[in-house]
């Protein structure tokens, strides 16, 4: 799910990212986010992607422009019904509202692929920030629920070995009426939308519309339900945070740090890993994105729209033409915050180099081809190395992935499927 980022203590305006390449640095002008200027975060009407070629090309031009700066934009008229969205959100709220012992029945420690639920402070990818103040429920691609897969027996073995969907977490949540059905309907709707978007991305990159079709036949497609409570004050645990009045002006970033302790975050600063993410978020603000110029800006929710952010692998294969979105969430308002990111990427066994339309004599390819599976594994090995260094130094990290919450060994894990933000 994400790249760790820290603000160096020696150079407070420097952002350090833990990536598949090792450490990568981004310069920032301020740690405090400002309001987005008009048009700075585009809201793109994508109804044209379901129509003729002229309409698709118009959407492609708008996406290309947005992807070059923050790598983040909103899309409206996306084709996912509000009923489908709200059914998934309602199911998530019921799930998160359960007693902890019921949620532990689907704890990620029971999964080989990090499917299921995990508690507040279980994710900590950012060395300078506190662990994420969120709990989540995550599940991965399963061809049994992909509407485009007509015959499971015909799926080649090379694809089968990459599938990470499981059934046990659906069985253990069967007592929540409609839970599995509502989440899978939402996942399927996003899967369909993501495939349409990928075709328009091809056009935006001056490639044939069907250029990526075979690369997303059995895609790396995962969904995560996030639940954030109001950021706690110093000495509080997440569940002890006091409600805050909505009738007062929200604090600035500097006030937020003073009120919540050092580097408190709802979701830590990071980028995502594969192609792109489709994000539903409720009306609670808190999402912030970093521009190419190094400014944090607030990406407040847009009614009826979904967020889209470019991820690392897509930035890589576009030769850095498109920008992978550095983002974080600081939820300091009264009430809980819910979001559902849908992560989309190529088939895990797919190998891709820099796209032919993204190189020329003046801009040669910066990167060698690499499979998506190796790309994800390389990134997570960097994360594991960092955690191992902490343990050797005697630093206790509540987000360490080596043991489960009871202190016992976890099942053998697939490094390419660590949880995402």
UniProtKB/TrEMBL annotation:
Region (Disordered): 227-253, 387-421
Keyword Oxidoreductase annotated: yes
Start and end residues of each Fe2OG dioxygenase domain: 247-346
GO MF: metal ion binding; oxidoreductase activity
Entry superkingdom: Eukaryota
Keywords from the UniProt entry: Iron, Metal-binding, Oxidoreductase
Gene Ontology annotations of biological process type: small molecule biosynthetic process
Residue spans of biased composition, Basic and acidic residues class: 387-399, 411-421
Similarity comment: Belongs to the iron/ascorbate-dependent oxidoreductase family.
Protein name as annotated: Isopenicillin N synthase
